[in-house]
Specification:
about 150 residues, alpha+beta, five-stranded antiparallel sheet
Length: about 150
């Protein structure tokens, strides 16, 4: 095996290890959301205000929202929400359902599928795709003849 081929295998192997770490991160996000939802209480909420902050130099926009809801014990709570994805952004005066922990209602999350699960699924999807791609590139070429299968 030439030096170039060896370096390429080491590089791809390092990328596979990095994708395993990214996959682990995505699974951790799913477990975090799952454990959050196990102890969460749901409530109807309304977006008080929504705004965008454009980051200079990175060409990205972060979308923020302030959500107001009433807890089960009657307290009025304002919770912050932010995302970088436009389709996950909340609009002014939008009615929605939130999930919150009774011990920490400030850590409320919109309780719809995409806003809860998009980021963990995105991390797992990217990591899984590149992990499989890296493993396929590392897989040694195996040529099996019909005589080998029969015997």
């Amino acid at each position: 095996m030439s030096l170039n081929k060896t370096f390429g295998r080491w590089l791809i192997g390092g990328m596979v290890i990095a994708q395993c770490a990214f996959l682990w991160f995505g699974v951790g996000l799913i477990n975090e959301r799952r454990s959050f939802l196990e102890g969460a209480v749901r409530s109807q909420a309304e977006v008080i205000s929504a705004w965008e902050v454009k980051r200079t130099g990175r060409r990205s926009t972060v979308r923020h929202a302030l959500i107001a809801f009433e807890t089960a014990d009657g307290r009025l709570v304002n919770a912050a929400y932010k995302t970088q994805f436009e389709f996950l952004a909340l609009k002014d005066r939008q009615a929605l359902e939130v999930a919150y922990l009774p011990d920490d209602p400030q850590a409320a999350l919109p309780a719809d599928f995409w806003r809860l699960w998009f980021e963990p699924l995105l991390a797992i999807g990217f990591a899984g795709f590149f992990l499989v791609l890296g493993l396929l590139l590392l897989w040694p070429a195996r040529k099996v003849s019909a005589a080998d299968i029969v015997t």
